[in-house]
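Each field is listed here:
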Amino acid sequence: MTTNAHALAERYIASWNETDALRRRSLIEDTYAEHARYTDPMVDAKGWEAIDATVAAVQQMFPGHRFALAGAVDAHHDTLRFQWHLALPDAAEPLVIGFDVASLEEGRIRQVFGFLDKVPQAA
């Protein structure tokens, strides 16, 4: 499960980084179950269309920033958890740090519970 969990988390991160709309949608459909749900403190997205719109909105809010896994992916049964960073390339520190827990269904993500550990301070 660890190898598969890591590969799935990598595809998940890749979907957040993909700026080409068609490739991003393909990644989302490959990574998430059709009626998947993504929730974090700022959004509750249900289904491929809403998840895709959420990713596009985040990319507009943080142009040029990239998501990256930050450490190992921990997994058991049908659940995985991992930390991620969002930063500009070559940045000394990430702008945003998050922690996600995902439940799986037939090898794809059914639901993501996202937590934000570090967010930019409002000006």
Summary: The mean pLDDT is 95. The two ends are 43 Å apart (CA to CA).
